[in-house]
Amino acid sequence: MLLTRYLSLRSLRARPLRVLLSMFGITIGVAGILAIGIANQAAMDSITRLFEDTSGRVDLMVTAASSDSGFSDSLARSLVNVPGVQMALPILKAQTALASSSAQTELGLSFFGTNSGGLILYGVDPLGEPQARDYTITNGRFLSEDRQAFEVVLVENYADDQDIRVGDRVGILTPYGVEKVQVVGLMAREGPGQTNNGVFGVLPLEAAQQLFNRPGQVDQFDLILDPKASSPIESIQEVLQKRLGADYSVTYPAGQGRRMTQMLSNYQIGLNFLSGIALFVGAFLIYNAFAMTVVERTREFGMLRAIGMTRRQITQQMLVEALVLGAAGSILGVLLGVLGARGLAAMMSTLLGSPVQSQLTIPPAALAVSLSMGMGVTLLAAALPSIQAGRVTPIAAIRIRGVPRQGWFQRHGWKLGVVLLAVSTALLIWNPFADDPLFRAGSMVVFAMFTGITLIIPAMVDAWERWTRPLMAAIYGASGALGSRNIQRARSRTTLTVGALLVGVAMILVVRGLTGSFAADLRVWVESYLGGDVYIHSSVPLRADLARQISAVDGVAAAASIRYQPTEVRLSDGSFEAITYMAVDPAAYSRVTRFVFSDNRTDSSAALSTLAAGDALFISSVLAEKYQWQVGDAVALRTQGGVRTFTVAAVVVDFFNQGLVVTGNWNDLRRYFHSNEASTILVSVRDPQSVAAVQTRIDDLYGKRYRLSMDSNASIRARVFNLMDQAFSMFDVLALLSVLVASLGVVNTLTMNVIERTREIGMLRATGMTRRQVILMVMAEAGLMGMIGGLLGLVFGVLLSRIFLTGMTAMSGYRLDFVMPASGILSALVVALVISQLAAFPPARQAARTNVLEAIQYE
Amino acid sequence: MSVLQASQLIKRYQLGVHEVNALNGVDFEAAAGEFVAIMGPSGSGKSTLLHLLGGLDAPTGGTVMLAGQELSGLNDQQATLARRRSIGFVFQFFNLLPTLSAEENILLPILIDGKKPAEFKERLDQLIALVGLEERRTHKPDQLSGGEQQRVALARALITQPAILLADEPTGNLDSNTGKAIMELLRRSCDDLNQAIVVVTHDARAAAFADRVVFLRDGQVERRLQLAQDEAPAQRMRAIIEIMESLEL
Ligand SMILES: Nc1ncnc2c1ncn2[C@@H]1O[C@H](COP(=O)(O)OP(=O)(O)OP(=O)(O)O)[C@@H](O)[C@H]1O
Ligand SMILES: [Mg+2]
After folding, report:
1. CA nearest neighbour of A294 among A493, A33, A116
2. Whose C-alpha in A60, A260, A545, B137 is 20 to 30 A from the C-alpha of A144?
3. So where are chain A's domains?
4. How far, CA to CA in Å, does B193 sit from each of A693, B16, B36, B161?
5. Which of A417, A382, A387, A402 is nearest to A495 (CA)?
6. Which chain B positions have a beta carbon within 8 Å of A14's beta carbon?
7. What residue spans of A680-821 are helical by DSSP H?
8. How many CA atoms lie within 13 Å of A480's alpha carbon, on the beta-carbon side?
9. Quick one: A747 exposed, middle or buried, by C-beta within 10 A (0-12, 13-18, 19+)?
10. pTM above 0.90, yes or no
């Protein structure tokens, strides 16, 4: 279209800076959405690949219901007899370590995925295995057919790290001490090679049974089904489960990734929401820019109307401009988003504790969504100004610029605003969105809330201005009072700018409030959870009485054994969910650290003695919220001795295994789980200064013998907090971007005001206003906007974060206390005031440079 | 035969409780090839009349007939099309789009009408020659002087061969020589192109180019003066000034 080329494109080109400013908001929003989409996809791919690849073509897995003990390998025969099952591959899992490696395995404390140190070896059937999983042998060969050969195939990267070559005989830790096996081949770190983050190897089943003293036992059977089987996989799973009984569980391999997926999606909801907010603020910017265009080009439109352009044509031209702007902004956003995705993927890798694919593919759905969001928001934001442009009367071109009429929205909008605000606040408090995992409806309500506040602003501007005039006069002087009064003039422009600032500030507060609350909670827990001074961990199971020996070491105040026992809990519908049973000796444990009871009225000594008496549990607050369990309720766990019922003695704050954890006493562990080995020994030291010395002493005495690795409380804490900060920093970045976008709105608005008032400023200069006074006048206007935006943002930020917190509790089961860090409030206010002043400076200087003569001759 | 015929035009503005009678029953006509000037004191309703004649605004009472079509009865869309095809405007200020070159500005009505500018090349060249802007075709408005800008506006108003050309103080912010040049151009397009032209002006020298002068006062026609173009310019001007003085303008 020729007209488009001449009018729309030219007019865009004539205002490059404005175009750029307006585009920026869209770009940021689109980039955010896309980056999250891409990283999301990459993370999901990584998770599924991890679990799919490591399980290969396996259709179902059979494990013992209580996974710690294995079961007989003779089960294979009855498994293959089930119709539809083609092959049953045994796996014996052994956790060990290389005898030669230095004790550098860290305590695998990761909040979101568990990552234990140490080498994992699988005893497998050398013949069947290659049919189930694709081992890429990079060097040497795969296992021979000899089921008893002491040979091993290791992951190449790990072998390289440990300086192991094909043909080497390496020593591994076994219950008999160090035993030698020969490395016959290396596999690539892909497919099954990704198991345990690549610290992995396979050896023949019978050799493994012999080495690890588990004759005739396996931990798992991987089943491959007959592809031609008539019955669906679900029914085969059902048949198997029924036939094997409650002592076994038959699961799908991919199920393992589900929890991580869920955890990630929570994180992504937050990110998605915030990039939505950035886009929302971007929409303000676009609307503002277009509304300004209409004012600025009133005469142009009037003239075009006079020489015969129809309303439709004018509106269309404006929309074409918006389309071009939206497209350019969105495309730029796509580029930025691809870059941003890299950072985000790195962040998610940290969270997951496993690498997220670095080669990012752009999922078409995310691309489509982000592009159409960008374009859609731009068009929507530009729609009203475009229609207004069409309404410009031809006579407007001829007349000297008149007083802008007060539109319906300025006069009556506040009524709609109040309604929107009331309804959205009520909806948010009621929170019917718990079932919507993506918080889509919830986000819409939040946007409605912001729209509501924005609509109310025009009605409040006069009052604000009157109250704050003395303050403005005090700060900015006489011309400042004049500038402060100017805020009432271009009211819709002012309103939108204030609205954008408000949203940005509120977002900073929400982010600070939520992460602050979450971090505070996590901190309390970490502080007490890590109550001891030294953590002792080993890549092999620890004898329970080691704790007693360690407590006798010079300088040690107390030592307590902790056992993390994987088990399952029965839910009200009869199904089971995997959780962790943490076993402690309540007395010993209390000497080292303490429990954090979620209800601080809990009588801790009574609770502890109930726990010590046995058949009792402390459940985590997460479980309590999730399943509505209370003190006194009976909870059934699957144990080695069958399903047993325990009484809930207390609810404690514990985020281990994402809060899916119960605590029981050591006697119950022995009685019901037939185990007496510790996962971790927690040590407290007499003199806090001597932690390092005590650590050395323990290491000298027992380090070698038990392959101990030690971590000081301080270093773990630093690691946890570091992880936490990294996870939250992305939120901060997005919230800050919203404010940045809002500040561009300030630049835009003030520039427009200055252009519009050129004659007036010239007149003021002519009558004796100094340049400095002109600057102060403009700065005062911005300062007032910043103040209104900042204070309102403060109110709504605090309100919203409280609401979100309640909502999050309902959705995830985390019960959090509201903590609004003072730094959050301070930084939000400072940001609003400082940014609005900084943004005001360029237009203020431009105003000060107004040439008096030109200004009064203008037109 | 008159191209433009207005009868009993009334325009009332409501200003709060006050009512302003900008026009109070004005009859007006202009024929093809006729050049009419409208004069009168400030606030007498000259611009208002011009706006009604051009369909920029609707009268409170009375009718405007343009080439046999009643303008005042048209809706916005129809009035817009009438302006686009049958009326040319030249204003005192801001006639041009700053982003377009002189040539593109002249072709603007063609573009708006969705026609191909290439088909109007001949007419464009002819008009550019008429207004003497051969050397300024690709200049942007801010690279043109005020007089040159008005000449571009004039060419633009003529590109569609409108039935009538309306100009509101086209020489209002030009020096007298440039103003004279513009009026000569208007006169020439009236003679050469047989164009009907209505010009609002305060300047007796400018009005002297017209065939007829209509004097307004308080929204009513006070006097009409027929001028013979074969008379000397100075004589015509004297006649106008005489009336202006008698009306205490
Ligand atoms: N939009 C309006 N609202 C109210 N009154 C108006 C409006 N437009 C014009 N008027 C009034 O109508 C009368 C005629 O105005 P008009 O602009 O036609 O005068 P004019 O003869 O063109 O004056 P000038 O020579 O100063 O341009 C004036 O009294 C003016 O105040
Ligand atoms: Mg006038």
Report:
1. A493
2. A60
3. 1-58+258-405, 60-251, 460-533+715-859, 540-706
4. 108, 46, 15, 9
5. A417
6. 98-99
7. 691-698, 704-706, 713-756, 758-766, 771-812
8. 17
9. buried
10. no
CA distance B104 to A38: 46
Provide the token pair at A240: 């198997």
**Number of Cβ within a 10 Å radius of residue B32:** 16
Are A549 and A834 in contact, with CB atoms under 8 Å apart? Answer: no
pLDDT in tens, A3-25: 776 777 777 777 777 777 777 77
What CA–CA distance (Å, rounded) separates A277 from A503?
Answer: 8
Residue pair B120/B110 in contact (Cβ under 8 Å)? The answer is yes
B237 assigned to some structural domain = yes
Phi/psi class of residue A581: alpha, beta or left (left: φ > 0; alpha: ψ in -120 to 50)? beta
Using CA atoms, how far apart are residues A210 and A190, in angstroms rounded to an integer? 28
Cα–Cα distance list, A839 to A320, A705, A836, B56 (Å)? 29, 65, 5, 41
* B42 C-beta closer than 6 A to ligand 1: yes
- Contacting A residues, span 134-153, partner chain B, CB-CB under 8 Å: none
CB proximity A402 to B under 8 Å: no
Angle (nearest 5°) at CA A65 between A64 and A68: 60
Amino acid at A437: P
* Residue A91 phi, psi dihedral angles, 5° rounding: -135, 130
Count, residues in chain B: 249
Q: Which amino acid is at A612?
A: A
Q: B75: helix, coil or strand? A: coil
Distance in Å from the first CA to the final CA of chain B: 32
Asked if B58 is an interface residue toward chain A (Cβ–Cβ < 8 A), one would say: no
At residue A318, the 3 state secondary structure works out as: helix
Give residue-wise pLDDT tens across range B117-128.
888 999 899 889
Q: Of A708, A720, A702, A713, nearest to A536 (Cα)?
A: A708
Cβ of B46 below 6 Å from ligand 1? yes
Binned at pLDDT 50, 70 and 90, residue A852 comes out as low
How many Cβ atoms are within 10 Å of B33's Cβ, its own excluded?
Answer: 15
The residue assigned the tokens 């089921």 is: A147
What pLDDT does residue A102 have?
Answer: 44
What is the predicted pLDDT for the residue at A161?
Answer: 80
Q: Given phi > 0 = left and psi -120 to 50 = alpha, else beta, which region is A593?
A: beta
Query: Which residues of chain A neighbour B163 with C-beta distances below 8 Å?
Result: none
Residues A788, A327: contact at Cβ < 8 Å?
A: no
Cβ contact B156:B110 at 8 Å: no
pLDDT tens digits, residue range B179-205?
Answer: 888 899 889 888 888 889 999 998 898
A715 SS3 class = helix
Q: Is B201 a pocket residue for ligand 1 (Cβ < 6 Å)?
A: no
Residue with the two structure tokens 């010079």: A554
A263 in contact with B at a CB cutoff of 8 Å? no
Q: How many domains does chain B have?
A: 1
Which range, A132-141, A815-824, B104-113, B118-127, has the best average confidence (pLDDT)? Answer: B118-127
Which of A10, A308, A394 is nearest residue B109 as measured by Cβ atoms?
A: A308
Residue with the two structure tokens 């004049």: A482
When the pLDDT of each residue in chain B is averaged and rounded to a whole number, the result is 87
Domain span including residue B46: 33-60+75-246
Whether B223 maps to a domain, the answer reads yes
Q: Residue B109's domain is classified under what CATH number?
A: 3.40.50.300
Q: Considering only A79-93, A358-372, A527-541, A656-670, which range has the smallest mean pLDDT?
A: A527-541
Classify residue B67: in a domain, yes or no: no
* Chain segment B38-65, per-residue pLDDT in tens: 999 988 999 899 989 988 888 999 999 9
Among A685-699, A739-753, B128-142, the least confident range: A739-753
B22 CB within 6 A, ligand 1: yes
Q: Which pLDDT score, from 0 to 100, does residue A855 have? A: 60
Tokens found for residue B164: 């009538």
- Kindly state the tokens that stand for A55: 């399980």
